Each structure stands twice: as C-alpha cells, then as structure tokens.
Amino acid sequence: MKKIALVTGATSGIGEACARKLAENGYNLIITGRRADRLNAIADELRALGAEVLTLVFDVRDREAATAAINGLPAEWQEIDVLINNAGGALGLEPEYAGDYVDWDTMIDTNIKGLLTMTRLVVPGMVERDRGHVVNIGSVAGDAAYAGGNVYCATKSAVKALSDGLRIDVAHTRVRVTNIKPGLVETNFSVIRFHGDKDRADGVYKGIEPLTGKDIAESVYYAVSAPAHVQVAEILILATHQASGSVIHRK
Ligand code: NDP
Ligand code: 8X3
Q: Which ligand sits nearest to residue 118's alpha carbon?
C-alpha cells in the first residue's frame, strides 16, 4: 500500500515541489491551500505521475475549517504517514517599531498557529499507529534575526521550538520530527512579502543563484526516506553564496 503525505501550502513554491517529489517517489498526496484552481491543476500533474490525490481547500488560520477538513477525511485517506507543515510566509520588512499589525497577525496566525493546528489534528493518529513523520518548514530566519525580519524571524524561531518540543513529546513512539531550515529560495515568497511588488522581490535574488523549491524538496525527501531508526532532526540549507540570514555575497 502506498504511503500518504499531506502537504500544506502545496499551490506554490516549496510545498508544490515537495508534493511533486513525493508523488514521483510513490506517495499518494493530500494537498492543501486556499486557491482551489491551483490545487486542481497541481493535482492533475501529480496524478500524471501515478499518485492518487485529494485536494483540501482551507485556510490554515481557520481552525474550524482545518478541523472539518481533517476530521472529514475519507477512511482511505485517514492514515497520514507524512505531514509537511509548509504553508506560511513573510509580510513586510519594516523595522520592528514600525511594523504593520495586520502583517504581524497574519504571520503569527499562519506560521505558528496554523502549523500548530495541523500538528494537533494529524499527530494523534500517528502516535496511535506508532508511525509517522512531521516535517516543519522552518527557516534560517529562525536561527538569528536580520534587519526588518523581526516578526517573521520570531515565527520561524517558534517553528524550531515547536519542532524540538514535538520531538520530545513523541520520543516514546516511532514518530519522527524534522525541521527544514532553508535560506534564499526563489518562489512567490518575496512577491508576497512585498505585497505584490515584483521588482522589489526580484531584487532579493539579484547577484546570487538562489535555491529552488526542488532543492528543498530533495532535503525533505532525504529526511522522510531515511531508515526508520534514523531521525533527521534539522537541516539548514543555504545558497552557496549565502552564509547566514544576513550575510549574502552578491556578484
Ligand atoms: P510561496 O508563497 O511560493 O508558497 C506559500 C504557500 O503557502 C502557498 O501554497 C500558499 O497557498 C500557502 N499558504 C500561505 N498562507 C496560507 C494560509 N493562510 N492557509 C493555507 N495555505 C497558505 O512561498 P514558499 O514556497 O517560499 O514558502 C513555503 C514555506 O517555506 C513558508 O513557510 C516559508 O516561510 C518557508 N520558507 C521560504 C523560504 C524562501 O526563501 N522562499 C526560505 C525559508 C523558509 P495559497 O496561497 O493557495 O493558500
Ligand atoms: C525565508 C528566508 O532569509 O528571506 O525564510 O528569511 S529569508
């Protein structure tokens, strides 16, 4: 029987690449996001790779909708083997004393509370079955703050703490927990951070070859395909000319 992976935020970037990598490697996929049209298009692509696919359209900030989606899974989709908590992003790059309240709340509600909700809904089944793997998409931003990163960095530090905490709480089971911490990955991330300003977003990746969603998916797959007795706790993946969240050499 094929394993089942649930990927949140699979309509774009890293989540989409993870879904594709897992479909290529024999997983069936539950893919989630807010954009139904994108989810359906990606589902068709994954089916062409041989996967069975279920799409769930909900906002991870909406706890009721998330609960209804997971508790309402058809019987054959309930035993989730891999949960990839990927949905999230950054909004703004203002100094902490000048940030936007709505941007702050959106990041905290999505990157921390959304991830926690999904963990709370999916992990009890993993613990009961004594198998499963939670992959949280953290960030180099969670290791140290950078200028203007303040709240986004705080949410990714929280992802590290929540990954470490969960790993402790499931240590009596065969459930594994991995925190993947990418550096600069060219996706829709910066376009969203800068509220649709594509030129400013392009500037983030100028003069450096950034990572791709596919590069991150390779690391995710490395962790989930490791032998059952091996728990990859964390992976920090940077572009070659990036040394940390704030040290980036540009040509
Ligand atoms: P994208 O903007 O390309 O993708 C973000 C995904 O998250 C989309 O599929 C989006 O789907 C989903 N999403 C966002 N908000 C919500 C929500 N409230 N409910 C449900 N889904 C949501 O960015 P990335 O692929 O780069 O980002 C994915 C993750 O990787 C994020 O957690 C980000 O913080 C992290 N990351 C990114 C890095 C980068 O440099 N790009 C580096 C390190 C970490 P939809 O709009 O359909 O809801
Ligand atoms: C995304 C990477 O360095 O832009 O988490 O914050 S960074």
A: 1
Query: Does the Cβ of 12 fall within 6 Å of ligand 1?
Result: yes
pTM of the model: 0.98
CATH topology of domain 4-237: Rossmann fold (3.40.50)
The pLDDT tens digits of the residues spanning 149-159 come to 999 999 999 99
| 193 Cα–ligand 1 center, Å | 10
CA–CA separation, 106 vs 54, rounded Å?
26
Q: Which ligand 1 atom minimizes the distance to the CA of 190? A: 41
Domain ranges of the chain: 4-237
- Sequence-distant (6+) residues with CB within 8 A of 51 are 2, 22, 23, 27, 28, 29
Q: Contacts for 243-246 with beta carbons within 8 Å, 24 or more apart?
A: 244/140, 244/143, 244/144, 245/139, 245/140, 245/141, 245/143, 245/144, 245/145, 245/146, 245/149, 245/153, 245/183, 246/144, 246/146, 246/147
Exactly one of 97, 101, 152, 221 is catalytic; which is it? 152
How remote is the CA of residue 229 from the centroid of ligand 1, in Å? 30
Q: Is 245 in the pocket of ligand 2 (CB under 6 A)?
A: yes
